[in-house]
From TrEMBL:
It comes from Saccharomycopsis crataegensis. Belongs to the ubiquitin-conjugating enzyme family. It holds the Pfam family UQ_con. One of its GO terms (molecular function) is ligase activity. Residues 25-172 form the UBC core domain. Keywords: ATP-binding, Ligase, Nucleotide-binding, Transferase, Ubl conjugation pathway. This is E2 ubiquitin-conjugating enzyme. It comes from the Eukaryota. Its EC number is 2.3.2.23. Pathway: Protein modification.
Length: 173
């Protein structure tokens, strides 16, 4: 009985110590990504932790790329990083109302690198650039918003009308 109890205690404490090491590792990784993003000269994207006390929740800003219906528009997103980041993708959603074939009305995003094609080599900057690119190049074969996908292909004027009807201007971060 004592050996079973000791065995249970030792396995119960192992995850705690590895969790704290994982937590430190995730924190260092995200701090490094924040510095990289801050010194990056990539236009139209930015992201920061929401508070000094929680590096796992960020707010991002994406400006629509030129020569797309989103040119001149700014969108706020949320990024929530899991405790085992970068081995698991963060949860990323549009906070700003969005009209797009690969974004549903709740802000959920259908983007393969945030799901089945996630890799630990990706980082916050990769995510932001992929989202910015998605604005101009939707995947209409896998839409979350079927009406937006249809209008993207068939009626750009109506698409733009509905996009602007849904759009809400935001302040910068």
């Amino acid at each position: 009985m004592d050996s079973v109890l000791l065995s249970r205690q030792s396995t119960a404490t192992k995850p705690m110590s590895s969790l704290s090491n994982e937590s430190i590792s995730v924190s260092k990784r995200l701090q490094s990504e924040l510095v990289q993003l801050m010194f990056s000269k990539t236009p139209g994207i930015s992201a920061f932790p929401e508070s000094d006390s929680n590096i796992l929740k960020w707010t991002g800003l994406i400006e629509g790329p030129s020569e797309t219906p989103y040119h001149g528009l700014k969108f706020k997103i949320s990024l929530e990083f899991p405790p085992n980041y970068p081995y698991t993708a963060p949860t990323v959603k549009f906070v700003s109302p969005m009209w797009h074939p690969n974004v549903d009305m709740s802000g959920n995003i259908c983007l393969d690198i945030l799901k089945e094609k996630w890799s630990a080599i990706y980082n916050v900057q990769t995510i932001l650039l992929s989202l910015q690119s998605l604005l101009g190049e939707p995947n209409n074969k896998s839409p979350l918003n079927a009406q937006a996908a249809h209008l993207w292909d068939t009626d750009p004027e109506q698409y733009m009308r509905l996009l602007l009807q849904r759009y809400e201007e935001i302040d910068s971060l």
